[in-house]
Amino acid sequence: MKKTIHLILGILCIIPSLFAQTTFDTFFERKSLRIDFSLSGNAKQQSAAIEQLRKEPVWSGPLNNLIDQFYYGGYYVNIYDKATNKLIYSRGFNTLFEEWRTTDQANTETQAWTNSVSVPYPKNPIVMELTARDRNDMQFHTLLKMDIDPTSIFIDQGNLKTNRVTPILSNGDSHEKVDLVFLAEGYTAAEQDKFVADAKRFMEALFKTPPYDQRKNDFNVWAVGCISEESGTDSSGKGVFKNTAFNTGYYTFGIDRYLTTRDMKSIRDAVWNVPTDAIFILINADTYGGGGMYNFYACGTADHPKTPVVFTHEFGHSFAGLADEYFSSEVAYNDFYNLKYEPWEPNITTLVNFDAKWKDLLPANTPVPTPLDDAHKDKCGVFEGGGYLSKGIYRPMDHCMMRDYAPFCPACTRAIHRMIDYYCDKKY
């Protein structure tokens, strides 16, 4: 009898998963629709336009978690079944263009930047909607909406350049794991072995860091050996320009340590045939610097002494949607957060809706805001200063990886676990 009960319970547990996968297979192929689009505008306005659609051979994302319920990021891509108008897929993300719009330059110039997002490949006609979060009300508003026929002759299906792909950690089915991809930047053909060794070193550093040390078995890790003509990266403020695979460079927005690239097309071209949930661009340089944008990419240099913690910090941005908790370093942004509203990031608050953040993680009788005194400074609290501002924004701990490379605070730790669960197709 017990065996029968256990069998029934097992079947009942399997049914939701089977239903979700059936839903996926009803609407999608296990391939990707890559949508390259431009964002153009300035500090006051923006618009979007499609540049290219591509069918690519790999979909590594979840089969169950199709509707993104994090509500993170400055943009959302929503996919609707055209016949029924049913929402069948959604995902949030950030872009570098979004950050640029808060700089002084955006007050006097209008620019256009290429961006890219991948969704499961539809079996039937869909409506693709791109929405953007307005900082004035923190709501998403439609930027672009268009019909897409998956049989269209205007969708590119050609093969792209095949790079050397080295699996450096393999734990199972990509639909149930986080697929982390290291991309080689500023590594010449003669330096590809160094790249693989560097990627392994970074991977080991990540999985020595709580809470990732508990979740190593939930990751697959790949090293994609893209060849650059020259070693290193651009440093425009010093007159240094290199011919590299992804056109990275220091001095983003004029900040010497801010190391990024605008070349999303080259990045997506490099991973067209690789299971990819998270991208880290590993740059063959030894000067301090890095950057990361949620569900977009992160990057950092291979050989600076602080390399391991810089990687973990920037990966916190790009993978888990974590905000910077520091408030005294130079940045190029103006009014990056609207203090009238609750920021979307899980590890900072304006106290507008703190109940939705880490209130449940506070020790009993913790005052909100929390004084930075001996009784509270080493505990989870609500400490003023974060998100580039010393006043009006609050962080969960005095010190954290997202402020000064200390261990992740409880709020960040929970956010990381939730994101891993999402990619592993678990309840999050």
The count of DSSP E runs of length 2 or more, i.e. the number of strands, is 17
CATH fold title of the domain at 164-320 = Collagenase (Catalytic Domain)
Radius of gyration: 22 Å
Give the overall silhouette.
globular
**The CATH fourth-level homologous superfamily of the domain at 164-320:** Collagenase (Catalytic Domain)
- Would you identify the regions where 5 or more consecutive residues have pLDDT less than 50? 1-19
Reading side by side through the largest sheet, how are the strands ordered?
Answer: 8-10-9-13-15-14
Helix content: 10-25%
* C-alpha termini separation: 34 Å
User: Which structural class do you get from the secondary structure elements?
Assistant: alpha/beta
Shape-level CATH architecture of the domain at 164-320: 3-Layer(aba) Sandwich
Number of helices: 7
Provide the β-strand percentage band.
25-35%
Largest sheet: 6 strands, mixed
Overall pLDDT confidence: 94
Molecular structure report:
The chain has 428 residues and is of the alpha/beta class. Among the domains are: 25-148, Peptidase M64, N-terminal domain (Immunoglobulin-like), CATH 2.60.40.3250; 164-320, Collagenase (Catalytic Domain). Helix content is 20%, strand content 28%. The chain has a six-stranded mixed β-sheet with strand order 8-10-9-13-15-14, with helices on one face. Strands 4-3-6-7 form a four-stranded antiparallel β-sheet, with no helix packed on it. A three-stranded antiparallel β-sheet has the order 2-1-5. Strand 14 and strand 15 form a beta hairpin.
